[in-house]
Amino acid sequence: MATEVVMPQMGESIAEGTITKWLVKPGDTVERDQPLFEISTDKVDAEIPSPVAGVLKEIKAEEGKTVPVNEVVALVDEEGAAGGESKAAEPQPAEDAAPADEAETEAKAEAKSEPAETKDEAKAEPEADEEPAPKAAGDDTGDDAEPPADEAERLRRYSSPLVRKIAQEEGIDLAEVDGTGVHGRVTKQDVLGYLEQRKAAPPKPAAAAAAPPPQARPEDGFSVPAYSEGENVEIEPMSKIRQITAAHMRYSKNTSAHVTTVFHVDFSRVDRARARAKRKFAEANDTKLSFMPFIFKAIATALKGHKSLNASIDGTNIVYKKDINIGMAVDVEGRGLLVPVLRNADRLSLVGLAKTANELAEKARSKKLSPDALKGGTFTVTNPGVFGSLFGTPIINQPQVAIIGIGTIEKRPVVIRDPDGNDALAIKTMCYLSITYDHRLVDGADADRFMIDVKKVIEEDSWSELESYY
User: Fold this and answer.
1) What is residue 35's DSSP assignment?
2) For residue 209, is it left (φ>0), alpha (ψ between -120 and 50) or beta?
3) What are the residue ranges spanned by the domains of the chain?
4) Which of 47, 58, 67, 232 has the fewest CB atoms within 10 Å, counting from its CB?
């Protein structure tokens, strides 16, 4: 008996996924919950496990194919797991399917995906927060953000396979179609309605000569080609996470009035507490103690007294977030940035912050992060300092109004003053913390007062909850 493996729905508004890599081949024996293939969606990359134990009988969707949610992508023969010799069927090339059959299959998939496209249209889909950011990216991108025109155009171009098929056959540019699906996504009904309008419109007079293709869109005003003919280049398509990050970062820069300020913070007290506790901490909690939990703790503590930094802008209204959910930017090598969220960070201890942050980072890198883990962030932290950067000026993760960038933490000579007022040089563990804020809501004095409180926690807290690990 063969079990169907379908494209899962990785989030409420996700209608399709792209198969990026098969991890097994036809004829291979697989265990239940063993990863079968990797997918990429508008929100997250993930490994999809086998629903049963058996032998992979057939692959119905090859690498690189975009498949609607709930469409069958493979068959697993459960009888093969019992020891019988089961010969895997040869995968059918997509080109062998009759056009009518293909259209029928995609029409069914379109019907299944339509509800996801039209549900909660007033909400914007969170980006992979993706990512954080310098994206911060990316990341939770927030359900309250209104997508920009260029983002809507990009999403229209990633409509369902049936819509793209109709558009290709009828010579329709999807950018010209007004989409009624979620944040401007074009549905089958939109395309058919556009066709009816086009047939009813009077024919346009033929141009005397074909005009050359425009080099820039009107909103750009100016464009420079990415490469010249004959230039020695290598071209590869962007991953969906990279596309989402690019659109979200441009949206953020066009939306918020970005201002960045930098504070020099003494981490000597944190460094000493961490050095004394980290060995026993790791043994007792099965997780490492980095500098990040201390920073999360300081930010969460300070946010409680500065509600304008834990907010969003909705038109002419200010939306103050009562929960403190800190997004942490995670660099996923080769795929971009994701921003999983530490929920209710102000209620977590250092142990809780360390465990949660390390678990989320590991899930992001192993493609086991759920879309829900990227939602609901109210403030973001990104850490370019892990690569040695002194500090950065990160881009705000919409619809939030502020993001902190952490520079490298290292020993530096600094000037100190003794009780008698004499100046002297001392070696301190120092770090530059930068905050980028949206000047539409947050004034410079507000941001500075918030950072003073963050600095105070880091420099003056006794971190007494670590004493049991000394």
Assistant:
1) E
2) beta
3) 2-96, 102-119+126-199, 258-469
4) 232
Counting every residue, how long is the chain?
470
Peptide bond into 399 cis (omega under 30): yes
Dihedrals φ, ψ of 326, to 5°? -95, 120
Under a CB-based contact definition with an 8 Å cutoff, are residues 43 and 126 in contact? Answer: yes
Q: Catalytic one among 439, 446, 448, 461?
A: 439
Verify whether residue 266 is a known catalytic residue: no
Is 258-469 assigned to CATH 3.40.50.620? no
Q: Which residues contact 401 (CB under 8 A, 6 or more apart)?
A: 256, 308, 309, 311, 312, 313, 437, 438, 440, 441, 442
Work out the pLDDT band at 10, boundaries 50, 70, 90. confident
Neighbours of 164 (CB within 10 A): 18
pLDDT reading at 269 higher than 60: yes
The distance from CA 270 to its chain's CA centroid, rounded to whole angstroms, is 30
Output the CA–CA distances (angstroms, integers) from residue 82 to 20, 54, 79, 85, 181, in the order listed: 30, 8, 5, 9, 46
From the list 101, 220, 314, 443, the catalytic residue is 443
Q: How confident is the model at residue 129 (pLDDT cuts 50, 70, 90)?
A: very low
Residue in 338, 337, 334, 331 with CA at minimum distance from that of residue 374: 338
Please, which pLDDT band fits residue 108 given cuts at 50, 70 and 90?
very low
Q: Whole-angstrom Cα distance, residue 164 to residue 151?
A: 18
Question: What would the pLDDT profile of 312-364 be if each residue is shown by its tens digit?
Answer: 999 999 999 999 999 999 988 767 788 999 999 999 999 999 999 999 999 98
CATH topology of domain 2-96: OB fold (Dihydrolipoamide Acetyltransferase, E2P) (2.40.50)
Annotation marks residue 248 as catalytic: no
pLDDT for 252: 94
